[in-house]
Design goal:
The chain is an alpha/beta fold and 522 residues long. The chain has three domains: 137 residues, Rossmann fold (3-Layer(aba) Sandwich); 98 residues, Rossmann fold; 240 residues, Spore Coat Polysaccharide Biosynthesis Protein SpsA, Chain A. 33% of the residues lie in helices and 19% in strands. It is built from 19 helices and 19 strands. Strands 11, 12, 13, 14, 15, 16, 17, 18 and 19 form a nine-stranded mixed beta sheet that branches. Strand 9, helix 9 and strand 10 form a beta-alpha-beta unit. Helix 15 runs parallel beside helix 18. It is elongated.
Length: 522
């Protein structure tokens, strides 16, 4: 897989924290088999954007707005090293780190990114609060090469001066002047080190008992602080401006911290590699007569352990939803119809998605926070249409079936004949649904879908695990509360007519080539 890595500068141009970080990521991804092409923001061309599909955007101050607009049509990850969503790049000057709206920039570029990868929890919180986005992933560390970490390990155990050291940086945001003033005010015996090449700085740091660092901006992590701690220095700093201080490992020093960071770096590269894989998910919600559940449903989807790339709302007209302001839900698409397309409309609309997967939910379905993760895990072992309410038919009718999923629980993946309430499938499989005109538009889209993908795509249907004591994996956590009112399709029309229609859908599918599980055995 080819990845275009875009940045203002690279490590061969400048030895800075961001550039060193990027070089480790580039090598790590290349070692995993990715083809990485590096392009400077000032040199990238229209053609290079048009002919490629996958981008990692690092520092981008020199990237033109024209090229940002073009990249926004692609899949891209922003690898965030500072705060390029604020004009000053310094959220620390604002109360609670929240900048006035007039000071925010690049808003759409961040919002339309597949993911924004940050280095610390505080930076995740700050960017989310400023931009009101939910596509941020915290990897919880900066990236160091194995060679650099081994070098730091080689410096352990030396004799230390009982003095305080300060990095002598010409960059005012690194706070050299403030650190000197602090030491003087406390009568601390300090020495300046640097400017020096990186390895020599590390050698000098290893000689001191204490390190004083008082940055003047919110550091997204602060590599130098973490390096000092890995070298066994006790750190005096303004912790609210050190991103690393928001991580649970910040309390460790020396070899213990070195081991933790070594492990973190490996996991961080794995995480970014996983983001590059095409596991994009568009969630499609259906609104008809239960708009009152949408807010809770959307919240549950945004809280998934695996974040969807987009959330869509498909609205079939009904007087119960005609006055709803759907913009308040801040979803990616709202497809509002002046007609009730019933069950098939959302399936037709889903063809417009660019995602690899579609996750579809009935309007009475509130998934557990690991439902999408459960589906992706199941796809790895049992690729097929997945769903939250699995049905195995007993014969050639719908009535008399056996159910699996949220209502009856199953510890393992179960092959079933059809699924409902919540679906998860590859978008490309929708083509099989339209190979035949549905037997009826009034009922049975779940039956028709599983029938058509089996007949035309040789694709099976499964119910992912719903272990009894792990409701976080469930497709539906409130089915018994929300799905039993008089708005339910099975209750709002004549009960016998509803099930007679479903029986007829099953019989039609079998006559035309569907092979339910129990009929295969005969």
């Amino acid at each position: 897989m080819k990845v275009i890595f875009v940045s203002d500068l690279f490590s061969e141009d400048l030895i800075g924290g961001a550039e060193l970080n990027d070089s480790v990521l580039i090598k790590g991804l290349a070692d995993k088999g990715y083809e990485i092409e590096k392009l400077k923001c000032s040199e990238i061309s229209d053609e290079q954007i048009v002919v490629n599909d996958l981008f990692i955007i690092s520092n981008f101050t020199m990237l033109s707005q024209r090229h940002k607009n073009m990249i926004m049509l692609k899949k891209y990850i922003i690898y965030e090293h500072d705060h390029k969503y604020i004009k000053s790049r310094n959220p620390s000057v604002y109360p609670g780190f929240i900048a006035p709206k007039s000071e925010l920039i690049n808003i759409e570029f961040y919002r339309k990114a597949f993911r924004v990868v940050v280095l610390s929890e505080i930076c995740k919180e700050v960017i989310e609060k400023n931009l009101l986005i939910n596509n941020v992933v915290n990897i919880g560390c900066s990236l160091w090469s194995k060679e650099k970490l081994d070098f730091i390990r080689s410096l352990q155990g030396g004799t230390k001066k009982q003095k305080y050291c300060i990095i002598n940086s010409p960059n005012p945001i690194k706070g050299t002047k403030e650190a000197i003033s602090f030491c003087k005010s406390k009568n601390l015996d300090y020495e300046l080190i640097g400017p020096l090449p990186e390895k020599e700085i590390l050698i000098e740091l290893s000689k001191y008992q204490y390190f004083v660092f008082i940055p003047q901006v919110l550091e997204t992590l602060s590599r130098i602080t973490v390096e000092a701690k890995m070298l066994g220095c006790k750190v005096l700093t303004s912790s609210k401006l050190i991103g690393a201080a928001s991580e649970d490992w910040f309390k460790y020093y020396g070899i213990d911290l070195l081991d933790i960071i070594t492990n973190r770096v490996s996991k961080a590269i794995d995480t970014i590699a996983q983001l590059l894989e095409d596991n994009t998910i568009t969630v499609v919600l259906n609104c008809y007569r239960r708009p009152e559940y949408l807010e809770e449903q959307i919240k549950s989807i945004r809280n998934q352990s695996i974040k969807p790339s987009e959330i869509w709302i498909w609205v079939n007209y009904h007087k119960d939803n005609k006055d709803i302001d759907f913009t308040k839900f801040n979803c990616d698409r709202v497809i509002k119809n002046d007609y009730n397309w019933k069950f098939y409309g959302r399936l037709a609309g889903s063809l417009l998605s660019n995602s690899k997967y579609i996750a579809m939910f009935d309007d009475d379905t509130i998934p557990g926070p690991k439902w999408l993760e459960n589906c992706l895990d199941t796809m790895d072992t049992n690729e097929g249409i997945l769903g939250g309410a699995g049905v195995i038919l007993s014969g050639d009718r719908y009535t008399g079936h056996t159910r699996y999923g949220w209502s009856s629980q199953n510890d393992e993946v179960v092959e079933v004949d059809l699924v409902g309430h919540a679906w998860f499938f590859k978008r490309e499989w929708l083509k099989y649904l339209w190979m035949e005109k549905p037997f009826t538009w009034e009922n049975g889209e779940d039956i028709q879908f599983s029938y058509c993908v089996q007949k035309y795509g040789n694709i099976k249907t499964y119910c992912p695990p719903h272990p009894k004591n792990k409701i976080e994996m469930f497709s539906s956590t409130k089915g018994y509360e929300m799905g039993v009112d008089d708005k339910a399709t099975s209750r709002s029309r004549n009960h016998s007519v509803f099930y007679a229609q479903r029986d007829a859908c099953v019989k039609n599918a079998i006559i035309n080539g569907w092979k339910p599980i129990n009929l295969r055995k005969k």
